[in-house]
From TrEMBL:
It comes from the Bacteria. This is Uncharacterized protein.
């Protein structure tokens, strides 16, 4: 494991400054890439601005940073006031911008331009991008690795925004031909408020698609199964068989 001189391998950032203002930017995320950890330690902890981290203000700072060692123990906590360019998601060289750019670069080809707009904080207007729902379901069902980096919220919101505009019967057809990743994404979407906020008449799917969703949820996403059973309503018999 690559460890910094101070023994820090992970920093958890709480970003109060940008969480509400920048589309899809999480309030909390992790920095684990060794060079990024070193950069952030230098800029926010070991540099002059970090020298007063023993001072605790009741209003708290815009940025909270908790660093951890290889054993998972906390090393240091810093509460920062004022702007910190390295953590500003709107700046191309910042750590959040790098995480978002890497996520956009990994998007499926037809979705890359759409992802790049989200990565810049400029998501396309609803309805201006039209793609088949199948690839979008797979995209939603294949989130970036396990790290809770600064792209994690946009990685969920961007595909959900595309699926919002798709008619239910078209979504159901995509479910019937989906692979495991596509079914993961379908369960995520059909159990979300993005689907369940629809009018009940627009929440009806055929028996085949509904059963595929429920079976997959019970096996892979048991926490979603009860929600799906309640909110995905049954339409007339679906005579298309896989």
């Amino acid at each position: 494991m690559n460890v910094t001189p101070s023994g820090v391998v992970r920093i958890v950032v709480s970003d109060r400054l940008h969480a509400a203002a920048f589309p899809g930017h999480p309030g909390t995320y992790e920095v684990t890439e060794p060079e990024e950890v070193r950069e952030l330690l230098t800029a926010a902890v070991d540099g002059p601005a970090g020298e007063r981290d023993d001072f605790v203000c009741m209003c708290r700072g815009e940025f909270g940073l908790v660093s951890y060692d290889a054993a998972g123990g906390p090393v240091r906590t810093v509460d920062r006031h004022g702007p910190l360019p390295l953590l500003d998601p709107a700046l191309p060289q910042s750590i959040p911008a790098r995480h978002r750019a890497a996520w956009a670069a990994a998007a499926p080809g037809p979705l890359r331009g759409y992802a790049e707009g989200w990565a810049r904080g400029d998501p396309p207007a609803p309805g201006t991008v039209t793609v088949p729902p199948g690839p979008v379901l797979r995209w939603l069902g294949t989130p970036p690795g396990g790290t809770l980096d600064a792209a994690r919220d946009v990685a969920r919101l961007a595909p959900l925004a595309l699926l919002d505009a798709v008619a239910t019967d078209e979504l159901a057809r995509a479910v019937r031909t989906a692979d495991a990743a596509g079914l993961d994404g379908a369960v995520e979407f059909f159990a979300s408020e993005h689907f369940t906020a629809r009018h009940p008449k627009k929440r009806r799917v055929g028996a085949t698609a509904r059963e595929l969703l429920l079976r997959h949820a019970r096996t892979r996403r048991p926490g979603h199964a009860a929600v799906l059973e309640r909110r995905v309503l049954l339409a007339a018999e679906d005579r298309i068989r896989r």
